[in-house]
Amino acid sequence: MREGRSNMTVLKMAFRNLVRFPKKTILYGLTVFLVVLTVTVSLFVHRATDIAEKILEERYVFVASLVKRTQGRDIPLSGIFKCLDYENVSAFNVTVSEGEGVLPASSALTELPSADRSENPKDVWIDEFCCPVYGVENLGLVYSFFSEECSISEGTTLTEKGYCGESDEIVIPWWLAERYGIKVGDTVNRRYLRQTGEFSYIYIPTKVVGIYTTSVPSLNIENYPAYISLALAETDYGKVLPTSTSAKNIDVKRADFVLKSREDFGAFVLFAKEKGLDFTSADLVFNNGTYDVLRAEIANIGRITLLVFAVVLITGAGILLFLTVYLCKTREKETAILHALGMGKRSIFALLTLEFALLIVAFSMAGFLGGRFAAESVCDFVNDTVMARASASEEIQERNATGDFIVTMPLEKDFEMKISVSPSPIVKSAVEVHSLPKLSENELGISRRKFYLFMTDSENLNASPEDLKAFETREKPQTDVVGVTDLSVFDLTVKIEFPENFVKIYVNENSPYADEESLFLSSDDFGDYVSLFLYEAKISPDGGRLGQVQRYYIAGTYKENEYCSGNDILVSMDDYHRIYSDLSVTDRNDHFKRIGAVYQKEENE
After folding, report:
1. Strand 169-173 with 200-214, pairing
2. What ranges do the domains of the chain cover?
């Protein structure tokens, strides 16, 4: 009981002494407050820079661009494949415009020219004005979208099915939509100049899935074309360009490859060199400018905060030690009187210790709270000065529109980043990228595309020339060709072993084609598009002539499953890509390897 009273007495005396000596109390407390406040600010800002560095690494879109050298020829499409197989390429884009692909003006935009195939087909007006149509693999990597000058205002960007060529989709500019009253969901006709046989225009219906607008309008509307997927464009070009056309003689302005990290670029260049990329006519540039500046500034801020922390902590500790000793010395007379009045040395020491502890705890709490709020103000100041300047490279600051973009430039953009003491920094870099799927061992990749059965092998053997002509105009069974990355998960019955270079197709065991030797497939049915004589403006008698027809041998059958059934044709993913290349301007050596969807393999598979 006596000890408890003694403690209460010491506590009361400690509070009374703090009030009795306000100058000393304020001096000591203010020193503690300033030291703790500065240390707290330093720690919070340093933590903000650590988080910012990680977020910058995760969200920055690293793009290596294959561009032509000054005064050199454009890059052949085949050159892209020398870079595309690098393991850390997560997405890519190439923009192609061939066959004079456009959206025509007037009624031909939304209405197909008359498909009347009588002896006197209806005349059709061919308007010279048109909107260019570009094929893209990744709309988000087109400069106008990557820089966020352009954005989707209605609908969506190209979908996964669109990018893989499973559906005909188009994204159109706002000016075209306004001029002709086009809405999302409407059908417009893309037009090409067919350069095989007699020159003619072909019109192919396409569904509008999105309309985009721009924040920096240009007087030249050609800077804002319509976009379809490259997969769709490939097959379009296969219909209209000479059969001798391949990836080697189609030129592109540039190709952009998204890499996983800053460190990948050096290895990427070496990979392209080993694959035979000709660096005398082409070059690889990297968009690391803004990233390097931002990271350097963030690192500098982090180093400064550590320096401030260390200096203030050491200096503050020294000052507090000095003040503690000094204040104790000034209390020697008082402690002597307390000792003479009967207070023990332990009680006197406890009294002084308690006084200093009360000051340190109270002013440390105030310093911590003040430092927490002050750190946010420091971050705001840094964001408005250092980070604002670092968020855009000088090249980007000098250009404010798509028309100013130079095709040999890196794909730089403003990357607005603000450090913050909140859980995550503020990052503004809204780039939607269509990524390449990377499959794990327990995943199955599947692609599918609509085809038409032109004829079977038995029909071909017994058909006369007149019969073959009639096959073009008859209604043809539709079938999906389904490509899979792992045929071993399917129950297959192999009838014939073919060499490795053969495309091997499998049909349903209950299919009427199970006993056939081969099938003739086409990507188009009669009437899928309209062909118009170039000089006469009249519907061609073969206005709906089929595209290329290819023969494929049946290697065996499959049991019906959740992925393919009915008349579906099952093939390996490699053979799927070969079939696709047969119908496009790519070939079996140089072609894109797209995967439409990814599924988890079932355990019983």
Report:
1. parallel
2. 2-58+293-390, 63-288, 443-527+535-600
